[in-house]
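Posting this for the archive.
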Amino acid sequence: MTATQRVALLLAQAKETNQGGIIDQGTRKARRLYVGNLPVDEMQITEEMLVGFFNAAATQAGIANATLPGDAVVSAWLSQENKFAFVEFRTMEEASHGLGLNGITMGPNSLKVSRPSDYEDPGTSMMAMRMAGGDMSAVPGMGMPGMGMAFPTVPQSQGPPSCVIRLQNMVNLETVKTKEDIEDIKEDVSDECQKHGKLEEVFVPAPEAPGAGDVYVKFDTPESALACKAVLHGRMFDGKAVQATFFSAEDFADRKF
């Protein structure tokens, strides 16, 4: 098996096992949220981009249940005109907490996040009802009630938002021997990452060079980088969890790895 075939196979396996089979389809209506005021004129919105964006927001705001496998947001449906969408959460509790994301910024717009019109109340908690009334203080780190919300603060260990992300635990240096191997890896990573936004560059350092063993991906905007980071971070790849972190765009340009 060539290096490119191995990377492609592992990416596919990681995606298939990412959710762990815990989703209760009988509660789907209670796990969906409406998302309006999308920045359709400024960004090319896709369903995969929305999943990545809201997963990043859920993780960074403390909404995602870290004890469960996979991601907090499992799917998204985008209207034909791209004016509104529905995002589906993994659990009812996470969907209820997700109401606190009302007002989150995407590009230049503040998104409207609310229950869909076909929502059926299964007996939600008092916290969920508080958030439905606009009390964002019910969710840790979401600010004061009634205030517009900027994007959730990125944990310091993840670095400040950037157009560049660093992917660790995706390259086995024992399998990277030639320039062709590097090009194969770049192609496969590009195929996966371009689902989340416009790519400007994928860089794989040569063996024994600074940064060897890591993959660096540069997007045109921090929003796209964030969406990709949220999807790839924590995926199991060749028996290891992928570590996706922001990386300084200046250091990337200067190749300071």
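The radius of gyration is 19 Å. The CA atoms of residues 203 and 226 lie 18 Å apart.
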